[in-house]
Amino acid sequence: MEFANTLIDWLRPDWFLNLVVISDDYNRGRYLAGLWMTVKLSVLSIFFSLIIGILGAAVQGAPSRALRVLVGAFVAFFRNTPPLVQLYFFYFAIGTVLRITGENGLPQPLVSNFGWAVIALSLFAGALNVEIFRAGVEAVPRSTVEAAEALGYTRLQIYRDIVLPLAIRISLPALGTNLVNLVKTTTLAYAIAVPELLYISAQIWSEDLNVREMMNVLLVSYVGLVAILVWVLHRWEKTLRIPGYGE
Amino acid sequence: MTMRPNAPVRGHMPVLLPMRIRADALPMADRMFNVWTAAALVLALAAVLIAPAFAQDAAPEKRSIIAILLEWTPTLAGGFGFNVLISILSMAIGTILGVGLGVLQVSPIRPIRSVAWLITQFFRNSPWLVLLFYCILLIPFQIEIFGTKIPFPGWIKAVIGLSLPVMAYMSEYMRGAILSIPTGQWESAESLGFSRGQIMTGIILPQTVKRVLPSWMNLYAVLTMATPLVSIIGVSDVMALTRAALSAEGRVDLLIPMYLYILSWFFIYCYPISAVTRLLERKYSVKL
C-alpha cells in the first residue's frame, strides 16, 4: 500500500508540472520574460547565422585563394573549439577591451551581454552553416550551372538565382539539425548572465526552492520550443519542395 | 591526390590515363582543411601570443604574457586532463546506453520501440546545460545501499549529465545504422536458423560499427567541446582554472591571450578528430 502511495505521489500532476509559474503572477511574469528572451536570442542568432552561412559558402566558391583559406580557417576554428569558451572569449576578453566612455565619464561596455551572446552564437552556428550550405552548393548538378553560364548569367546571378535556391533545399535537413542545436545552445547565455529561460528558472528555483518542479517546466519548455522550430522548418521544407525532387 | 604534370607525349590521350582527381573536383572539405588553413591558424595564434610580448618591452618590470602563460600551463594542463577524463567516461557510458537504446528502437515489440523513441527524442532535444543542472541538483550527493554509503561528487554527476545526450545521439545513429543493413541479411540469417538475438549480436551489430564510426567520433569531438560546461555547475575543470588564473593575475592585457590559449588547446585536441572523421566519412560513404 505504501508503495502504491509513493507511486501515486510520483505521478501527481503537480509534482511533474506544479506550475508555480502559472499559479504565481510574479513568477509567471518573470518566466514569460525569460521565455521571450530565449526566443529573441534564438531568432536573432538563427538570422545572423544563416547570413554568415550564405556569405561563407559563397566565398568558399570564390576564385580568390586567400578568401577561401580565410573562411576555411574561420570554419575550422569555430567548429573545433568549445562554444562556451568562445562565448567567454567574446564577453570577458574582447568585451573588456572594447569599452567606450559613457555619459557619466566611466568606461562602459560597447556591446551588452545580450549582444555578445548573439554574436558568439551566430558565429558558432554560422561556421557550421557555412559547411552545410557548402555541401548543398556542391550537390547542385554541374550541368545546371553550365546551362546557366550558357544562358549568359553572371557569377552573382548564377549564385543568387540558380545555385542558392537549389542548395538551400538540399541542405534543409542538415540545417534543421544545426538550428535545433543553436536553440539548445542559447542556454550558454546563462554563463554571462543574460536573463534567458535557464537563468530566470535558476533564479526562481533558488528563491522558491522548487528545483524539481521548475526543472521539469524548463525541460518541457525547451522541448516545446524545439518542437515549434522543427514544425516551422518542416513546413518550410514542404513549401519549398520542388515537384520531381525527392519523394 | 598529387597533380602530375600533363606531359605532352605523342599519342597522349587523357582517356588512356588512370582516372585522376583534379584539385578543384575535390570535395571542398579537402580544400578547406589543408595545410594552408592550418598554417594560417598557427600564424594567427603566434601573432596574438607574440605581439603583446613585444609591446611589453617598454615596461620591463612587468612579466611578459608568454611567461605568465607558461607558468600557468601545468595547472591548466591538469584541468584539461580532467576535461578529457570526463569526456572519455561520459562517452563510454553514453555509448553503452545508446547502443542498447538504439537496439530497443528497432525492437519488433511496439511499446518498447515507442518508449525508446520517446527517451531518445527527449534527451536529444533538451539543452546539454539543462540536463547537467538536472543531474547536479537532483541526484543526491550520496546514496546508501545495504549500509554502504556511495558518495556522488559533483564531477561524477557531471559525467552522468553529459552521458545522457550522448546516449540519445548514439541511439539515433545506431537506429539509422541498423536500418541501413539490407533486409536480406536478416532474412538469410533467419533461414539459417539464427534467433533474433543471435542475428543482432552476431551479424547486424558488427556491421554497424563501420557505419557508426564517423558519427561516433564526431560526437566525441562535440562532447569534448561541451565539457567546459561543467565549470558552470562548479566542477573545477580547465575553464574554471583559467578563470581563477585570470583573476589571480588581474591583468586586462592577459585576457585575450589566455582565452585564445585555452581555445587553441581544445582546437589542437579536436581538430585531428574531425580531420580523421572526414577521412572515414569519405572512405565509407556510399558511392552513388
Topology, pairings included?
The complex is a heterodimer of chains A (247) and B (288).
Chain A: H1 2-11, H2 13-17, H3 20-23, H4 25-60, H5 65-79, H6 83-97, E1 99-101, E2 107-109, H7 113-139, H8 142-150, H9 155-185, H10 197-208, H11 211-240
Antiparallel strand pairs in A: 1-2
Helix pairs in contact in A: 4-7, 4-9, 4-10, 5-7, 6-7, 7-9, 8-9, 9-11, 10-11
Chain B: H1 28-32, H2 35-55, H3 65-105, H4 110-125, H5 128-138, E1 142-145, E2 148-151, H6 154-179, H7 183-191, H8 196-226, H9 238-249, H10 255-284
Antiparallel strand pairs in B: 1-2
Polypeptide structure, described:
The complex is a heterodimer of chains A (247) and B (288). By secondary structure, chain A is an all-alpha fold. Chain A has helices at 2-11, 13-17, 20-23, 25-60, 65-79, 83-97, 113-139, 142-150, 155-185, 197-208, 211-240, and strands at residues 99-101, 107-109. Chain A has one domain (20-240): MetI-like (MetI-like fold, Orthogonal Bundle), CATH 1.10.3720. In chain A, 40% of the residues are buried. Chain B has 288 residues and is mainly alpha-helical. Chain B has a two-stranded antiparallel ribbon with strand order 1-2. In chain B, a hairpin with a 2-residue loop joins β1 (142-145) and β2 (148-151). In chain B, α3 (65-105) packs antiparallel against α4, α5 packs across α6 and α6 (154-179) crosses α8. The longest helix of chain B has 41 residues, at 65-105. Chain B starts with 27 loop residues before the first helix and ends with a helix. At the A-B interface, α5, α6, α7, α9 and α10 of A face α1, α2, α5, α8 and α9 of B.
